[in-house]
Amino acid sequence: MKTTTLKSLTNAHAWIGLIISTVLFIIFFAGSISLFRENVLSWEHTPPLAKEIGQFNYGFVDYDKAISSIQNSYNVEVDHGFYLFPPTEYTPYIEAYFAEVIDDTDPETGEDHHDVHVYLNPNNGEIIGNGENFQFANFIYQLHYNLGLGRIGLYFVGLITLFFFVALLTGTVIHWRKLVKNFFQYRSEGKKDKWLDAITLSELWGCLSTSCMPSQGWCLIWLLFTKFPTLYFFIRVIRSDYSKQQDLTNHTLKNLVTLSPCQG
């Protein structure tokens, strides 16, 4: 490789890494915490809700009152999924997920509804909390994939990821000739050489792990379509049955929520 080309790649590698390093650190750090998202959510909302609920009988939960409370407080969109999760020893409350009709269509997404997540008291069915009030875990999760900036942030993170891929490629090309020879090299004499060896090793492992994820996905798709067509057909049948079951659930819910409380 020509000296001028190698120098250009080195400069591009250095500047790209310098520019995107701060954003990548935020993305990676938030992603590491998001691995424990469910645990953080439980730590965040279970103690205050459990204190408000107090004692209750696990053998009897009044779901009729819970549904009536939701019906009276929200304009439920009956053409979407409606999910109720019973209380457990670790989550002593009813969780409900559903969609609410909104008056004005969202200008960004064009949707005429928004998702709602509420917590209900299993003793009397009253709503005691909203999922929007417990946002720390969700904030960290959104920080990981869109930096908390919505759709614009999602595109920005995708652009940063492309630059990260370019940095990995240029770094591999720069060190390609001595990649195997200096793989386990660690020079402790000079501070600059020490950091260079550490960066080279981390970049190599990063390039390998980044390339493995899409490769595994493509291999799985190829095996599914070429070697296991029966399994693919079986999955299609399951998805078809699930869709029919979901339609039946929505139809049942539509008939349920149109009833007045006195009719339940």
UniProtKB/TrEMBL annotation:
Lineage: superkingdom: Bacteria
Keyword Transmembrane among UniProt keywords: yes
Pfam family, one: PepSY_TM
Keyword GTP-binding in annotation: no
Transmembrane feature ranges: 12-36, 152-176, 215-235
Keyword list, A-Z: Membrane, Transmembrane, Transmembrane helix
Name of the protein described by the UniProt record: PepSY domain-containing protein
